[in-house]
Amino acid sequence: MNAKSLRPFLRPMATLFQAATAFSASNKFHFPSLSACNGQMCVLRSDARINQFLNMGPHKSLTQRLLTNAVATKEDTSASSKTGHELLLFEALREGLEEEMERDPRVCVIGEDVGHYGGSYKVTKGLAPKFGDLRVLDTPIAENAFTGMGIGAAMTGLRPIVEGMNMGFLLLAFNQISNNCGMLHYTSGGQFKIPIVVRGPGGVGRQLGAEHSQRLESYFQSIPGIQMVACSTPYNAKGLMKAAIRSENPVILFEHVLLYNLKEKIPDEEYVLSLEEAEMVRPGEHVTILTYSRMRYHVMQAAKTLVNKGYDPEVIDIRSLKPFDLYTIGNSVKKTHRVLIVEECMRTGGIGASLTAAITENFNDYLDAPIMCLSSQDVPTPYAGTLEEWTVVQPAQIVTAVEKLCQ
Amino acid sequence: MSFTATKFPPSPLPLTSRSNDKPLSFSFHHSKPNHSSSFLGSTRRLTPLATPHARRTPSPSPPSAVLLQQASNLLVTKEEGLELYEDMILGRFFEDKCAEMYYRGKMFGFVHLYNGQEAVSTGFIRLLKKEDSVVSTYRDHVHALSKGVPAREVMSELFGKATGCCRGQGGSMHMFSKEHNLLGGFAFIGEGIPVATGAAFTSKYRREVLNESDCDHVTLAFFGDGTCNNGQFFECLNMAALWKLPIVFVVENNLWAIGMSHLRATSDPQIWKKGPAFGMPGVHVDGMDVLKVREVAKEAIQRARRGEGPTLVECETYRFRGHSLADPDELRDPVEKEHYSGRDPITALKKYLFENSLANEQELKSIEKKIDEILEDAVEFADKSPLPHRSQLLENVFADPKGFGIGPDGRYRCEDPKFTEGTAHV
């Protein structure tokens, strides 16, 4: 069985399978019979395990192979079919949210201006009229209290999604997220689970000022008991949203202010992505570039330049910020022997720092050069446009870094 | 009768002289115009009380008050009285046993004992159904016991054994029980109040969204006077009143937050006043008198069940021991301590039961003996229970252990046998 014959059946994890054929024979994929999926919605995992989900009707056998990379690689129009619909990232989030709310009446949204206003980034628009004011709850401005309220509701049987109007506001809820979200399952000896999703837009926007341009992934990453994921495309936004809602663990879903208007075609059928897996954006040979969220696009832009200069970078969107998908990352390191991490976090104690440590610990023998990590400057994001630009990693810096790494 | 957010006279409450000599009535006008005693916990000298209190049948109260109409003169039946007595004795003896075990080196860390405050726990929690929820603070042993968690499990948890209610992972300050709907046990003050608000929200959600029309579960949030200066308290009062959540906020005002007197920390020490500010009734009750607490609790809980919203109940109470077993308790005035030990809730209930011929000495003694046996058994059980095995270390970090991620070999880390042994490095 080769990857090509499976193409009609593959979900957009397909790009991984493209890379799969380039891997060594040590990666053996066992392909279960897909006929087991008839009548069921299936997700084909990147390691070819199949997770069967709810009964969604006849499985459409001809799924287009969708592209998850939005910028640098060529649009593959050969596989595009009539199925699928185009939408913006925030609409994808809303779609995922709506589907989950329809599926399970215990799913509810709690946050500021999520109801009547429709969400400050319109992610929850139209949901309050549809589901009612109690299911899409407009809260007073009390992040700590309503996040705690979400946790209490989760402990007693509901599945709330707490929206921070801006991720930075969740700093006010740090007490509840750290102490209760992360810990209560453990300190209660496993008696209470907290299936809560905490989400909101973060990251550096366009001159929003220091407090609205925070990256909290590094602050939350040490909290034991939570999972963190960052979405970057409409496809993975919807998939991760659904996965986070269905997960029994507390999940923090990081969205980015500047990515809400990205447009992409996503499948009509229901799909759920894995919270723990990374996404292969562009397979390559020379260097592994690990990134997430908005920096993915800077990387892909740099990749264009790099390709013209003759380099072949492998770009992986790590997606799962905690825990790291060491399998995908490891396989890539073993192939290219060079790692560049590009992130929007600050340098000190950031995701990149943890990732560097994890890769060094696990794959040190495979590295030909020290890991390079490009992060934002350890600076409160300035308001001035030029200064803000220099705070964040830009494609030119990525190109230089790769050239240096590949000397 | 129902509570209303009545207006209160501007003069300060004579909290010392009010409830002991006054008959039981739901008067919100606790003020006596000229009072000679000062608020306990202040630095002013305490003037001794005139006469020891005796419970009398209700006499007419001030016109603006609302009287409780009772069928009989008595507040409890014999069974109820004995049940309350047993619960308070269990709480008291358990805490004494904890102190004994702590000094014998069987438990460690911070242990906060509830001696003296039993009336609040018993008065409120014994009125609840099993499905109602209780959220507490670090002073949670007796709340757990009143809610129904077996003494064995609480004692094991304190000893850090695997048979504890939280498998030894929580400890003194984190008592949880899914079966009995005890939602913790929180170490940081104020942290549990939003969780309680969430549990009340679930109750409302189940009734209105999931259409379980018989869901009238009530949540009780217990916390202290120090917490009432914390933002989480106010935020939750607002939300609970706004959405009419079925919750009762119970303030166990024992006048001291470790070494900080309530008066030194609070601009307006009358906590019940903070209820009407948010649109809910604020009630002050003598927290050393279990029957009074029970009457107030009945109405507050019924109010919540009827969907009329939250109530703030301030219970004036006192802890006979220090803040924790590590607290030398040197700051509190011995006269104050003596005054309150004269108002021991257990002695008061005993007196009531005798005076109203609801029980005799033997019955109470046999209850005490029964509790002694329960505690002996609990200690023995805890002693004999095994310590948690290393394999338990990583077990409950995630409800779904896939959260540990995918290891370099492609398998989920939780599938690694080292995980079940507890030796894997996360």
Automatic annotation (TrEMBL), chain A:
InterPro entries: THDP-binding, Transketo_C/PFOR_II, Transketolase-like_Pyr-bd, Transketolase_C. Residues 87-262 form the Transketolase-like pyrimidine-binding domain. Its cofactor is thiamine diphosphate. It is an enzyme of class 1 (oxidoreductase). It catalyses: N(6)-[(R)-lipoyl]-L-lysyl-[protein] + pyruvate + H(+) = N(6)-[(R)-S(8)-acetyldihydrolipoyl]-L-lysyl-[protein] + CO2. Its EC number is 1.2.4.1. SMART domains: Transket_pyr (SM00861). Keywords: Chloroplast, Metal-binding, Oxidoreductase, Plastid, Potassium, Pyruvate, Thiamine pyrophosphate, Transit peptide. The pyruvate dehydrogenase complex catalyzes the overall conversion of pyruvate to acetyl-CoA and CO(2). It contains multiple copies of three enzymatic components: pyruvate dehydrogenase (E1), dihydrolipoamide acetyltransferase (E2) and lipoamide dehydrogenase (E3). Tetramer of 2 alpha and 2 beta subunits. NCBIfam families: PRK09212.1. This is pyruvate dehydrogenase (acetyl-transferring).
From TrEMBL, chain B:
It is an enzyme of class 1 (oxidoreductase). It holds the Pfam family E1_dh. Tetramer of 2 alpha and 2 beta subunits. The pyruvate dehydrogenase complex catalyzes the overall conversion of pyruvate to acetyl-CoA and CO(2). It contains multiple copies of three enzymatic components: pyruvate dehydrogenase (E1), dihydrolipoamide acetyltransferase (E2) and lipoamide dehydrogenase (E3). Its cofactor is thiamine diphosphate. Keywords: Oxidoreductase, Pyruvate, Thiamine pyrophosphate. GO terms for molecular function: pyruvate dehydrogenase (acetyl-transferring) activity. This is Pyruvate dehydrogenase E1 component subunit alpha. It comes from the Eukaryota. InterPro entries: DH_E1 (IPR001017), PDH_E1_Alpha_Subunit (IPR050642), Pyrv_DH_E1_asu_subgrp-y (IPR017597), THDP-binding (IPR029061). Residues 88-389 form the Dehydrogenase E1 component domain. The keyword Oxidoreductase applies. PANTHER family: PYRUVATE DEHYDROGENASE E1 COMPONENT SUBUNIT ALPHA, PYRUVATE DEHYDROGENASE E1 COMPONENT, ALPHA SUBUNIT BACTERIAL AND ORGANELLAR.
